[in-house]
């Protein structure tokens, strides 16, 4: 019996290297999942997870900036439902905040939250804990703080579906996003053993030498990233046409 694939979203978070090499300047944020976890335990992955019911709620979708349901459906190409299409963007932003502490959301002035401000950083760290403890939802936080999902800061990258023989299957949309200058990632320790920035070339070498484990969507994504020397080139290539 083939298990139905669960809808999910993943964010490939990127930044320019502080000390660029001659042939490139891209770093990607990766996490190593705890060995005890059932799904890809001990593997290096990008932040992401399954779509929740809340991600599809009209109130959440209405708080997306820069992309509407029809835009999302067109960008995803083979998605039959406009509202569900846009929900992938909401899922991606929520999962990135939950797993990495990066909040791709605009305030009332159209700016990202400045986590260099200690009070704001502590405030949203508290929100993040409440969301993990299921005391509040991401949507409730967005309403309370008058924030809007920065959907236009996520570019659709690829589509992966777990093979039919797998006991756990995911229908996952991959997005790329640039790290906001005002923020830095902090992984969620209950799920992630370690995390950090790495050159995609170095990550692939570590995988080839057996130093780290990765599944096909992860190393294939890294291979794609190595084709670009600068983030501007990468984001231009994947910008909606």
**Tally of discrete structural domains:** 1
Distance between the termini: 39 Å
CATH fold title: Nucleoside Triphosphate Pyrophosphohydrolase
The main β sheet shows up as: 7 strands, mixed
Parts with pLDDT < 50 across at least 5 consecutive residues: none
Morphology:
globular
What structural class results from the helix and strand content?
A: alpha+beta
> What is the CATH superfamily classification?
Nucleoside Triphosphate Pyrophosphohydrolase
Helix content: 25-40%
Description:
The protein is α+β, with helices and mostly antiparallel strands and 241 residues long. It has a single domain (6-238), classed as Nucleoside Triphosphate Pyrophosphohydrolase (Alpha-Beta Complex). 33% of the residues lie in helices and 24% in strands. It contains eight helices and nine strands. It has helices at 58-61, 69-76, 82-100, 118-132, 138-144, 200-208, 216-225, 231-238, and strands spanning 6-21, 24-33, 44-45, 48-50, 105-106, 148-149, 154-161, 170-178, 192-198. Strands 1, 2, 3, 4, 7, 8 and 9 form a seven-stranded mixed beta sheet that branches. Strands 5-6 form a two-stranded antiparallel ribbon. Helix 2 (69-76) crosses helix 3 (82-100) and helix 6 packs across helix 7. It is globular, with a radius of gyration of 17 Å. The mean pLDDT is 93.
Question: Summarize this, please?
Answer:
This protein has eight helices and nine strands. The chain has 241 residues and is α+β, with helices and mostly antiparallel strands. α2 packs across α3 and α6 crosses α7.
């Amino acid at each position: 019996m083939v298990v139905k694939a669960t809808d999910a979203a993943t964010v490939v978070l990127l930044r320019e290297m502080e000390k660029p090499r001659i042939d490139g300047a891209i770093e990607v944020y990766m996490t190593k999942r705890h060995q005890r976890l059932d799904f890809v335990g001990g593997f290096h992955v990008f932040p992401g997870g399954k779509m929740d019911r809340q991600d599809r709620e009209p109130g959440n979708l209405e708080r997306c900036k820069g992309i509407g349901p029809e835009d999302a459906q067109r960008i995803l190409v083979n998605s039959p439902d406009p509202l569900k299409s846009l929900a992938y963007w909401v899922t991606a932003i929520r999962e990135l905040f939950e797993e990495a502490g990066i909040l791709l959301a605009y305030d009332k002035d159209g700016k990202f939250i400045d986590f260099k401000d200690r009070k704001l950083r502590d405030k949203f760290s508290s929100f993040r804990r409440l969301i993990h403890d299921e005391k509040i939802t991401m949507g409730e936080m967005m309403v309370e703080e008058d924030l809007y999902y920065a959907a236009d800061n996520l570019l659709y990258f690829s589509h992966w579906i777990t093979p039919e023989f797998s006991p756990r299957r995911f229908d996952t949309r991959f997005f790329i996003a640039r790290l906001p200058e005002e923020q830095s990632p902090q992984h969620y320790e209950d799920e992630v053993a370690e995390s950090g920035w790495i050159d995609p070339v170095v990550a692939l070498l570590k995988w080839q030498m057996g130093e780290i484990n990765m599944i096909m969507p992860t190393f294939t994504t890294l291979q794609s990233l190595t084709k670009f020397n600068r983030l501007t080139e990468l984001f231009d290539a994947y910008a909606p046409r």
